[in-house]
Amino acid sequence: MESPLYLFRLPQLVYINVINSMSTTDQFFISFCSRKTHSTTKYLVRRFEKVVLETYADQTVMFRDSKFRIINVQKNQEILNEKVRINGQWVDCEVNTELNAIGLFWEEDPLFGTMKSIEYVTDLFHTDISTMNLLENVDNRLMNWVQQRQKFLQTVNISTDNSKNEIYDAEKLKNIILNCKSEEIIIDARSSEELEIPNYYVKCNMLICSIGKWITMETIMRIDCEEIFLVETKFTGEELNRFLKHWINGGSLRLKTFYAAVGTDSELQLFDGIEKSRKLEHKFYEV
Predict the structure, then answer these.
(1) Which residues form the F-box domain (predicted)?
(2) This prediction's pTM
């Protein structure tokens, strides 16, 4: 039988190098061993790449590099497993190596547990949540909380699974869209009813709406965005002509890319009054 390695009996430079060589997942686990392993992981370990974190629904936090997940569940019976200390609170846990996950069982609801998990890992690795994936009728509480505690949120992805005929509650979806402040907003969710969001305004780098026809031309000309992609929304040639003139004349200053569908019979209306401004370029490439 091999004798254990007492990590902290080694010189500091050696045990720091050992922890540096661990994966993010292993560093997460070793942080629970003692206060010393936690403080060493938090303050002394070198990070060659930023730890990128994502959330799924309102229950799961995931490390993007390893796909390791922290799944938060409400405790409904006594769990005869290990306990870990999360921000001073002892929580039952269960590790599932096949799923590459740890389950945390909270007396409170899963949303509370997810918030505590986010506080723990963002503090441990000096990072923020990068992407939030809002699924299965999750409301805007977790998103609002994340946006309040960090200055920057890269992406919010709102989606439903069409293969399961999932439908997002219209009021929840509307509140998410109105409160979202991320740099990239991706809406791929079938709503329980067609949305109406008058006077909608957002400032972001990218807006993608794959499902839904609620975005009007007035909305397009109002929002401050670099890239806009609309899949289901169809504008008339007259509406797009008005937008193109608005864009050519200096409107939508930051907009670089715009995609929307238009009927093939609308081409004459589309470029009415701006024919002279069109420039056709041919590029040839040799292989």
Answers:
(1) 4-51
(2) 0.87
Measure the CA angle with vertex 152, ends 168 and 25; round to 5°.
Answer: 85
Beta-sheet pairing, 184-188 with 89-96: unpaired
Q: What is the DSSP-derived secondary structure letter of residue 8? A: G
DSSP sequence for 202-250: -EEEEEEE-S-----HHHHHHSEEEEEEEEEEE--HHHHHHHHHHHHTT
Instruction: Tell me how far apart the alpha carbons of residues 42 and 124 are, in angstroms, rounded to a whole number.
Output: 5
Please say whether the beta carbons of 251 and 221 come within 8 A. yes
Q: Among the residues of the chain, which ranges form H helices? A: 12-20, 24-30, 35-43, 110-125, 141-149, 170-179, 217-222, 237-248, 267-270
Rounded Cα distance, 155 and 132, in Å: 6
Q: Sketch the domain layout of the chain as residue ranges.
A: 128-277
Residuewise pLDDT in 10s, the chain (287 residues): 566 667 777 788 888 888 888 889 999 999 998 888 898 888 887 776 788 999 999 999 999 988 999 999 988 776 667 899 999 899 999 999 889 999 999 999 999 999 999 999 999 999 999 999 999 889 999 999 999 999 999 999 999 998 888 999 999 999 999 999 999 999 999 999 988 898 899 999 999 999 888 898 999 999 999 999 999 887 888 899 999 999 999 999 999 999 987 766 666 788 888 865 555 555 554 54
Q: Report residue 114: phi and psi, to 5°.
A: -65, -40
Distance between CA atoms of residues 178 and 200, nearest Å = 7
How far apart (Å, rounded) are the C-alpha atoms in residues 251 and 52? 36
- Cα–Cα distance measured from residue 188 to residue 183, given in angstroms and rounded to the nearest whole number: 16
> Residue 273's CB: how many other CB atoms inside 10 A?
11
